[in-house]
Write a structure and sequence with these properties.
The structure is a single chain. Helix content is 26%, strand content 22%. It has 4 helices and 7 strands, in the order E-E-E-H-E-H-E-H-E-H-E. Helix 1 packs across helix 2. The longest helix is centred in the first third of the chain and has 15 residues.
Length: 166
């Protein structure tokens, strides 16, 4: 809402054949203009492009392929972007099976330069993901934990530094 309680973003829906609401249009007021988006991915891409324009050192991480990869695909700016994997690439766990459909765009987005690499929890997952998805850069960042909890006051936070991973 703006200062006069007018909505800045409106979503329009119609009823699908399955009696479920279906998004048909997103409108956003920007100054005196109205910007329209036909898909949620275009709306998300708009904001990711805004972030990229404001920070030449931006790096994006995709932790939810179904929600984020379509936006990466529609972005106008090329930003170093990485896909994080948490589980098997195929329903059976065997690499010679067909990959989950949510991961299929990764190969083409990597070829187009819209994804810089992959991140997995183990060296083996990293190697397997690179091979199956035909991506040249794949990294492993081991999962870990700490038994102590260090509380850092927000006022002493260093901007641009990660203070928690959950």
């Amino acid at each position: 809402m703006d200062q006069n309680n007018n909505p800045l973003i409106r979503e329009y829906f119609c009823q699908s054949n399955q009696n479920k609401p279906m998004l048909t249009l997103i409108e956003m007021k920007k100054g005196f203009k109205t910007v329209r988006f036909e898909k949620e991915a275009s709306f998300q891409a708009y904001f990711l492009d805004c972030l990229a324009e404001r920070n030449a050192q931006a790096v994006f991480y995709c932790d939810r392929c179904m929600q984020v990869l379509p936006a990466f695909e529609k972005m106008k700016h090329i930003v170093p972007s990485y896909v994080i994997f948490h589980s098997a690439l195929t329903p059976s766990g065997y690499l010679n099976d067909q990959v989950y459909s949510v991961f299929k765009p990764v190969t083409e987005l990597a070829k187009a330069g819209k994804i810089r690499g992959l991140i997995s929890s183990t060296k083996r997952e990293s190697k397997d993901a690179a091979e199956v998805l035909q991506v040249s850069h794949s990294y492993d960042i081991p999962v870990t934990f700490t038994s102590s909890e260090d509380k850092i006051p927000f006022s002493s936070r260093t901007p641009g530094k990660i203070i928690a991973v959950a």
